[in-house]
Amino acid sequence: MKHKPSSTSALSAPSKLPELERLRGWLASWVVLGHCIGEAGWNEEWLPTLGKLTLSPGLAVKIFIILSGFVITLLLDKGKANYREFITTRAFRIFPLYYAMLLIGVCTASWTSSFYPEYLSHIGNPTALQNLYNTWSGHLAHMQEYIPLCLLGLHGAIPNSLLPHAQSAYVSQAWSISLEWQFYLIAPLLWWALQRRVGLLVISVAFYLILGTRHHFSIGDWSSFLPQSIEFFAIGTISYFAYKHVAFTSDSPGIYARVLLSVIILAIGFIPFFTAMLFTQWPEDGSSLINIGIPLGIWLVVLALAIARKHTPEHRFVQYISFPLTNRIALYLGRVSYSTYLSHYFVIYALQWAMLRLAPQHINKWSMVVVFCAVGAPLALVLSALCHRFIELPGIAMGKRFFGKKVPGPIAT
């Protein structure tokens, strides 16, 4: 099945957007920071509002998912790959690094389980980390069931009633990699259907049926099953069509700086509104407006920024606002974001073990935050650079050799 450019518009598909590429780096950093604070033993009850956000890396992942919906729609709109080529290139993009981290996770699972209870006792046995540890015994005892699912990238689609906590097996944050892969498997088919009126109607009906019925079923954890996160991919897809239309059809480029300012003002207004709710409640079930409002607000600001930079890159206001997404640090973080996302937890575990052996009397919530941030963050960047250089890039090169074409850019997870 060959994917053709959209027939609904004569506009060409835009090229890769640097603002979105670099957004990945800050999102991955948010995830790392959240895991560092959480693994130090802190929870949201002890932190101010901004601290609660750092303990919610799931919000960053939701922005990743929106970004993925945008980027995958862009790739399909270019119409340069059939289904086999699309799936193959995406597989070579995500699986080489994931398999490497999975191998490390499987080989170190017993070792991590051996010292983790002692570490938890030093930081007060926080409930969230204790619950995480309790899932590891099943992963160790039933590797023959978990590993094949992980190799297929479908561990996130398995409900706990069939195989408990498959989503977090061996590489806990890789639940989102499974979610991405589920989307990749059907994205070309959805794109094909969207080009047809009947297909568009069927997809729309199915989408609203999923939204209306999914909470009646117990399907997976952490939104790792595609129907549980489908609205975020949809936001990304709709955003792509909005960007494609708006960014290429304006006769008044100067308006985009004002649009950007308006979006920022709105985001400044409603993001703290949702965040203020954290003082009274921080929902875990994913049903609150907080879980949509904050990611959507950040995404709208970045998207408006990308549009403004396309039309008025020389505008002083646009230059000031875009600096976080245009500097060299953002460029580097974006380049290694996938490696950072998948590998950082092993640095955290290594530092926990080292502190238990070298200075157990100094382990507490404050000291571990300092250790994770001052020592762990640089080590995580070094590990990310190595993974990017020796695993990611060779995987991309292998994908190129299959088809003799340029492989799509980094994934949005």
In terms of topology, how is this protein built?
Blueprint: H1 18-39, H2 49-54, H3 57-78, H4 83-122, H5 127-141, H6 143-152, H7 175-194, H8 197-213, H9 226-247, H10 255-276, H11 290-311, H12 316-322, H13 328-335, H14 337-358, H15 365-403
Helix pairs in contact: 1-3, 1-11, 1-13, 1-14, 1-15, 3-7, 3-9, 3-11, 4-5, 4-7, 4-14, 4-15, 7-8, 9-11, 10-11, 14-15
Q: Key terms for this structure?
A:
413 residues, single chain, disordered C terminus, 71% helix, globular
Description:
The chain is 71% helix and 0% strand. The protein has helices spanning 18-39, 49-54, 57-78, 83-122, 127-141, 143-152, 175-194, 197-213, 226-247, 255-276, 290-311, 316-322, 328-335, 337-358, 365-403. Mean pLDDT is 83; it is low at 275-287 and 407-413. It has 15 helices and no strands. It is mostly helical and 413 residues long. Helix 1 (18-39) packs antiparallel against helix 15 (365-403) and helix 4 (83-122) packs antiparallel against helix 7.
